[in-house]
Every structure is written in structure tokens, then in C-alpha cells.
């Protein structure tokens, strides 16, 4: 009985170690995804700014043509 209890304890510890490793891996992936999202935010803002400038140029051209 004692031997099986010890083996069960080892198995449980191995599972805990594996789960801990999995959590660390997932945490690293979440951090990377967060960094990627933050980088994309600045890219999206730059694209929005470019689009706004392009729209303003088009508006200016249309205004000159209609004038």
C-alpha cells in the first residue's frame, strides 16, 4: 500500500510539473500575443492617419475642380 501511495505521489508531482510547464508556455504565448497586438495598434493608427491624409488630398482636388 505504501509503495502504491508513493508511486501515486510521483505521478501527481509529474503532472503538476507538466501543468506548471504548460502554464509557463501559455503565459509566454499570451505575452507575445499582447506585444503583437500592441505593435498592430500603432500600425493601424498609421494606416488610419495615411487614409485621412489621402482623403483630405482627394477632397482638396474635388474642391478645386468644382470651384
UniProtKB/TrEMBL annotation:
N-palmitoyl cysteine: lipidated positions: 10
User: Which Gene3D superfamilies does the record associate with it?
Assistant: 1.20.5.190
Please give the Pfam families that the UniProt record associates with this protein.
LPP
Positions with an attached lipid (S-diacylglycerol cysteine) read 10
Ordered alphabetically, the record's keywords are: Cell outer membrane, Cell wall, Coiled coil, Lipoprotein, Membrane, Palmitate, Peptidoglycan-anchor, Repeat, Secreted, Signal
**GO CC annotation: what is one?**
outer membrane
Q: Which residues form the Lipoprotein leucine-zipper domain?
A: 15-62
Q: For the modification N6-murein peptidoglycan lysine, which residues carry it?
A: 67
InterPro entries for the chain: Lipoprotein_leucine-zipper_dom, MOM_Lpp
Coiled-coil intervals, chain numbering:
16-57
Q: What NCBIfam families does its record include?
A: PRK15396.1
- Chain's role: Plays an important role in virulence. A highly abundant outer membrane lipoprotein that controls the distance between the inner and outer membranes. The only protein known to be covalently linked to the peptidoglycan network (PGN). Also non-covalently binds the PGN. The link between the cell outer membrane and PGN contributes to maintenance of the structural and functional integrity of the cell envelope, and maintains the correct distance between the PGN and the outer membrane.
Full protein name = Major outer membrane lipoprotein
Per the UniProt record, the lineage of the source organism begins with: Bacteria, Pseudomonadati, Pseudomonadota, Gammaproteobacteria, Enterobacterales
Amino acid at each position: 500500500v505504501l509503495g502504491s501511495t508513493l508511486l501515486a505521489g510521483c505521478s501527481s508531482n509529474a503532472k503538476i510539473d507538466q501543468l506548471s510547464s504548460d502554464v509557463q508556455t501559455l503565459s509566454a504565448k499570451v505575452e507575445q500575443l499582447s506585444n503583437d497586438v500592441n505593435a498592430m495598434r500603432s500600425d493601424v493608427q498609421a494606416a488610419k492617419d495615411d487614409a485621412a491624409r489621402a482623403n483630405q488630398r482627394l477632397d482638396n482636388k474635388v474642391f478645386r475642380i468644382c470651384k
